[in-house]
Amino acid sequence: MGTVIWLIGTLVLAGLELAAGEFTFLMLAGGALVTTGASLFGIPLWAEIVIFGLASGALILFLRPWLHRRFRKPAALDTSPKALVGAKAEVLEDITRTGGQVRLDGSIWSARAIDPAFIIPAGEHVTVADIDGPTAVVWKE
C-alpha cells in the first residue's frame, strides 16, 4: 500500500511542477520516486520518510542548481541583419522596380518589394521579409 501512495505522491508533485516551473516540486517528485522503489522492499515507514528526505535534499542541493544554470541561460543576442526579418519599417522614398528607401530600426535602408511590379508609396508601413545584403526586401501589409 505504501508503494502506491508514494507513486501517487510522485505524480502529484510532478504535476505541481508543471504549474510552478522552479524545479523544487520536480526534486521532491524525484525523492518520492526513489522512495517508491525503496518501499518495494518492505522497509518500515520511518525508513521510507528518511529515504524521502535524503533523496529530496540531495536532489535539491545538487541537481536543482545545475538545472537552473542549464535552463535559465539567457538567449544569445542576435545583432546580425537577419534579426531584422519580420520588423516593421516606414517607407521614406517610393519603392519601385529600381529601389527605394525605408526607415528600419532607426536607420535608413535601401529597399525593394517582393513583387517587382508592385509600387509602395512613401509614408506606408511595410514588413521586412528578407535582408539581401544592404537591401531590405519588404512587402506591404
From TrEMBL:
It comes from the Bacteria. It is a multi-pass membrane protein. Residues 82-140 form the NfeD-like C-terminal domain. The keyword tRNA processing does not apply. It is found in: Membrane. The keyword Mitochondrion does not apply. GO terms for biological process: proteolysis. GO terms for cellular component: plasma membrane. Signal peptide: none annotated. Keywords: Hydrolase, Membrane, Protease, Transmembrane, Transmembrane helix. The chain crosses the membrane at residues 43-63. One of its GO terms (molecular function) is peptidase activity. This is Membrane protein implicated in regulation of membrane protease activity. It comes from Corynebacterium appendicis CIP 107643.
